[in-house]
Design goal:
Distance between the termini: 115 Å
Largest sheet: 5 strands, mixed
Radius of gyration: 27 Å
Strand order of the largest sheet: 6-5-4-10-11
Number of strands: 13
Strand content: 15-25%
Oligomer: single chain
Helix content: 25-40%
């Protein structure tokens, strides 16, 4: 997205970075009209729509795969549309996702899956493998190798997937880089778009709740599902916020449970308490 010349000019690079990050922070359709080189770049949310799962790619081991192979296992998916030689924004997005995953304590491949797909058709699976290794090292979870895939593909297939996501990007011939916004996509186990997370830093709570939501509560512990019940996604806040009505319901339920438990304990104590002995007294005849 930026050349070395641009990066050495803080005014341009910082303005461009801020523009592309903020572009993903607005709900609905985002189209950047200024500066001109960013025209047509943005995100148009397609929540609830299913992705074309027959699209073919090549994984980081050089094997041909389709999107279908990463789905259908009852696990939600964290999807990133990036490219591996991106000089700035893609790395920031992947760094943000990695940091959030570290903090939620889940392992890719167990509770959920992660997939990164290159939008640059010139990139090879060797490059994808090198990028994957660097992020597995950063994650410090070697067991996540099978649960986090880095793919490459043809321009037609990457573009078709991006359009299905509403992820609009373009190639800038002057800088020879791809112009795109910063976002992470959460998919249900059947490949339906469940949530858009925007920016280059992700609240670990938001990521975990988005995955719980995408799995319809089938992923995570009972406590996790209870927390999901108390939060809902606020499009204006671009994150999960407490839902007061459900919090009150949970509080009322816990109060009733504690009261019932207290009454039960009192009843058990009363039942087990020794009864007074009544001695019979004989009256003289």
């Amino acid at each position: 997205m930026w050349t070395e010349r641009d990066i050495n000019r803080p005014d341009l690079s910082l303005i461009a970075l801020a523009t592309l990050v903020l572009a993903g922070s607005v709900a609905g359709q985002v189209v950047l009209d200024n500066p001109p080189e960013f025209a047509g770049v943005g995100i148009e949310e397609h929540l609830g729509e299913k992705l074309p799962l027959d699209l073919a790619f090549t994984d980081d081991h050089g094997r041909p795969v389709t999107l279908q192979e990463f789905l259908g296992q009852g696990k939600p998916v964290v999807l990133n549309m990036v490219y591996y030689q991106c000089p700035m924004l893609c790395n920031l997005v992947l760094n943000g996702v990695t940091n959030a995953v570290k903090q939620i304590g889940w392992i890719p491949g167990e509770q959920f899956r992660m997939v990164a797909i290159s939008i640059n058709p010139r990139e090879t699976y060797d490059l994808a493998a090198a990028k994957k290794l660097s992020y597995l090292t950063e994650l410090s979870r070697p067991e996540a190798e099978a649960g986090w895939s880095f793919l490459v593909g043809t321009e037609a297939n990457s573009k078709a997937l991006a359009e299905s996501l509403g992820f609009h990007y373009r190639y800038d011939s002057e800088s020879k880089e791809f112009v795109h916004t910063a976002a992470t996509f959460i998919l249900t186990p059947d490949g339906t778009i469940s949530r858009y997370l925007y920016g280059i830093e992700y609240n670990p709570r938001d990521l975990k709740l988005a995955l719980l939501e995408a799995s319809e509560g089938k992923t995570g512990s009972t406590l996790d599902r209870l927390i999901l019940y108390c939060y809902h996604y606020d499009p204006q806040a671009k994150g999960y916020v407490l839902f007061a009505e459900n919090v009150m319901k949970v509080g009322g339920g816990l109060t009733a449970l504690l009261l019932g438990l207290a009454l039960f304990i009192l009843w058990r104590r009363e039942r087990s308490a020794p009864r007074p002995v009544h001695l019979a007294v004989r009256r003289p005849h």
